[in-house]
Amino acid sequence: MTGFGALFLEAMFVENMPLTLFLGLCTFLALSRRLETAVGLGIAVTFVLGVTVPLNQLIYTAVLAPGAWDWAGRPELDLSYLSLLAFIGVIAATVQLIEMVLERFFPAIHGAFGVFLPLLTVQCAILAGSLFMVERSYSFTDSVAYGLGSGAGFALAVILLSAIRTRMAYADLPAGLRGLGIAFVVAGMMSLGFSSFAQMVGP
Amino acid sequence: MALWTTLTTPLIRQNPITLQILGLCSALAVTTKLDTALTMSVALTVVLVLSAFAVSLIRRHIPGTIRLIVQIIIVASLVIVIDQVLQAYFFDISQRLSVFVALITTNCLVLGRTESFARSNPPLPSMVDALGNGLGYSLILVIIGSLREFLGTGALLGYQILRTTDQGGWFQPLSLMQLAPSAFFLLGLLVWAIRSIRTEQTEPTEHEAPRVTEPAE
């Protein structure tokens, strides 16, 4: 199993964003009280990650990477220290653009996850997707697989957590553990479960 | 006096991590060792204080509609500076922190404080508030970082305190402490401990258990 599918599955299960890398935890815990919001958030994250990671890959290789300005006779130019600013800019612009397009052409979808879109500009998982892409020097197709896979992994985890937390509302917990406390413990158990997926990718 | 309250409130009573659910991602990811946790705490506190200062200085000149972008750009520039400093002077720690220093940019804690406090207050209180929140964040990171390193390897800051079985001692390291799940468990237990002492933080139940009535004899 190699290539696109392997990378997709690896990003989705083995390197699950919230559960094994602790990315995007703020929204993961704050917005998982209800199943409907969790579904909306999951779809929005998958969508934005799937768009911004490949886009940032193109920008990085074309403009920022060391040696990207060879053709202009400036091989010594290394703009990679600017990548953080560029990525944040791209993410903010993409999120704004997606929101405008959805509002204009697909008002139903916009109503479903419109609230979460602006939040995603400052979601660590989105920016981390682009930063990992640089650190592991993915190609364009790799970055598509990675973006979609890690988004799907986030969606899976947040939907599962919200389903468990909905049931937790009926449990008789110690007062101090109610709400946030038990959410952490549940997330820990899910993380234990997901660590068994580490065997999926052979040595 | 008011400044002192601003500084101490975020330590436990309004702790950014355990109560406001801000800045969790980095808090859990960098706590496998105490030294990375300390580095991260210092980096975040510096960025937080400086960005609160900058945002609050220009708070009357930022147009409301684009304030988020302005704030993010201020934060991102500061983070780039910190990242370069770490790479220059603490290279191996910055390698272990990997992308998490860069992720301070999107740390909800930084934006949360600039958005909710620095944007509407003068520079001095804003910096004190940022410092308080930074210390509250650092407190949790140091507690979890030292617990995980101590229980996971028997060492603190790299100094061996308990001799492990490999070295002829008696201490069997809990390797689970070095893995992801234990961070969640420890933070959950910490939240429980804090809320048992400060009961006003407990969340209301969403569902009341039906009252069991004694059957009439």
UniProtKB/TrEMBL annotation, chain A:
Membrane topology field: Multi-pass membrane protein
Recorded superkingdom: Bacteria
Pfam families: Rnf-Nqr
Any one Gene Ontology molecular-function term assigned to this protein's record: oxidoreductase activity, acting on NAD(P)H, quinone or similar compound as acceptor
Compartment(s) of residence: Endomembrane system
InterPro entries in the record: NqrDE/RnfAE, NqrDE/RnfAE_oxidrdctase, NqrE
The entry's keywords: Cell inner membrane, Cell membrane, Ion transport, Membrane, NAD, Nitrogen fixation, Sodium, Sodium transport, Translocase, Transmembrane, Transmembrane helix, Transport, Ubiquinone
Predominant place of localization: membrane
A GO CC term assigned to this protein in UniProt: plasma membrane
Transmembrane segments: 6-31, 38-59, 79-98, 105-132, 144-164, 176-198
Gene Ontology terms describing biological process: respiratory electron transport chain; sodium ion transport
NCBIfam families: nqrE
Name the record gives this protein: NADH:ubiquinone reductase (Na(+)-transporting) subunit E
Gene it is expressed from: nqrE
TrEMBL record, chain B:
GO BP of this protein: sodium ion transport
Residues forming coiled coils: none
Residue spans crossing the bilayer: 37-58, 70-91, 97-114, 135-162, 174-194
Keywords: Cell inner membrane, Cell membrane, Ion transport, Membrane, NAD, Nitrogen fixation, Sodium, Sodium transport, Translocase, Transmembrane, Transmembrane helix, Transport, Ubiquinone
Membrane topology of the entry: Multi-pass membrane protein
Domain of life the protein comes from: Bacteria
Pfam families the record matches: Rnf-Nqr
Gene Ontology molecular functions: oxidoreductase activity, acting on NAD(P)H, quinone or similar compound as acceptor
Cellular component terms (Gene Ontology): endomembrane system; plasma membrane
Cellular compartment(s): Endomembrane system
Subcellular location, principal: membrane
Name of the molecule in the record: NADH:ubiquinone reductase (Na(+)-transporting) subunit D
Species this chain originates from: Psychromarinibacter sediminicola
